[in-house]
Recover the amino acids of this structure.
């Protein structure tokens, strides 16, 4: 089977709302146990959403899943310094990632799966006792899956820095596992 050129899909990611998109090898995606600990001991929403730890895949599971793929699309929005725009950019990139995942699936990439940025905010509060109300859009974040976003983004040759204060530029990133 020949490898299908994914350039049109990188363009499509941009059409859906990403500021940029690039193709990376799954081995460039770094997983680490410490990332999940930062969710557990650094986030006030720990355990409140089915897409966050302890409900999300462990770093070891994430690594095994990544190893089943050959190509990954990395997307970003930003940089921005407008804190008032943060929620819109975050939610927009989550929708771009799941939208691209769906389009890839319908185009024959049956393994396509997205790992967007930040927490899922489809429901408030999350329905932890019953079925997910939005399974077509609900995905765990890269951090919740144990992905070291900083190392992964740098492995792709992109810039990422710690947001030190409200005047620092920030970016959001998402992955779509393709095939």
């Amino acid at each position: 089977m020949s490898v299908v050129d994914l350039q049109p899909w990188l363009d499509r990611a941009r059409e859906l709302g990403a500021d940029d998109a690039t193709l990376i090898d799954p081995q460039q995606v770094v997983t680490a146990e410490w990332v999940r600990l930062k969710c557990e001991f650094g986030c006030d929403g720990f355990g409140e959403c089915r897409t966050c730890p302890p409900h999300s895949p462990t770093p070891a599971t994430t690594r095994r899943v990544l190893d089943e793929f050959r190509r990954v699309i990395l997307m970003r929005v930003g940089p921005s310094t407008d804190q008032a725009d943060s929620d819109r950019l975050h939610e927009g990139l989550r929708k771009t990632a799941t939208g691209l995942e769906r389009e890839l699936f319908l185009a024959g990439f049956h393994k396509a799966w997205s790992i967007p940025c930040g927490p899922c905010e489809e429901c408030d509060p999350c329905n932890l006792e019953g079925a997910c109300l939005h399974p077509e859009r609900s995905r765990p974040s890269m951090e919740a899956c144990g992905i070291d976003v900083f190392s992964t983004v740098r492995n792709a040759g992109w810039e990422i820095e710690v947001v030190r204060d409200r005047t620092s530029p920030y970016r959001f990133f998402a992955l779509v596992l393709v095939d």
